[in-house]
Every structure is written in structure tokens, then in C-alpha cells.
Specification:
Layout lengths: L5 E4 L5 E4 L7 E4 L2 H28 L11
Antiparallel strand pairs: 1-2, 2-3
């Protein structure tokens, strides 16, 4: 899966990376490379958290969750 990210330097000199497709998915690093490593981790965590929210929603409904790999 591919995501576009933006990287910009903030007022304190940190490189801030954001994934616009995932609201609130932001990370930072002391340089661009560290920011990219950190945003990849943040994207994985964001997707996992969303998955967990939806799993808890299906637990109280009659729907059966199905795992799909992309």
C-alpha cells in the first residue's frame, strides 16, 4: 500500500511528516530520513487503531469480520 506524505521543517528545526489521507497521522524527526521512518511507523499504528475500532463495532453487531490482505 502506498501513501503520499508531506515533509516540512517546523519553527524549531524538526522535520514534520504528515499523511494527508489519514487524518491526524503526523510524526517528526531530526532530519528527513528519520521523519520518513517515523511516519511509516505512525501510518502502521493509525491503520491498526482504525482496524481495532471497527472490530469492536462488529463485535456488537450481527456482522462477521473477514480479514483481507492488501
Amino acid at each position: 500500500m502506498l501513501f503520499h506524505v508531506t515533509i516540512e521543517k517546523d519553527e524549531d528545526g524538526w522535520m514534520v511528516a504528515e499523511c494527508p489521507a489519514l487524518p491526524g497521522c503526523v510524526s517528526q524527526g531530526s532530519d528527513e530520513q528519520e521523519a520518513l521512518v517515523n511516519i511509516k511507523e505512525a501510518i502502521e499504528a493509525w491503520l491498526w487503531a482504525e482496524d481495532q475500532k471497527h472490530l469492536s463495532d462488529t463485535a456488537v453487531s450481527s456482522k462477521s469480520p473477514v480479514l483481507v490482505s492488501v
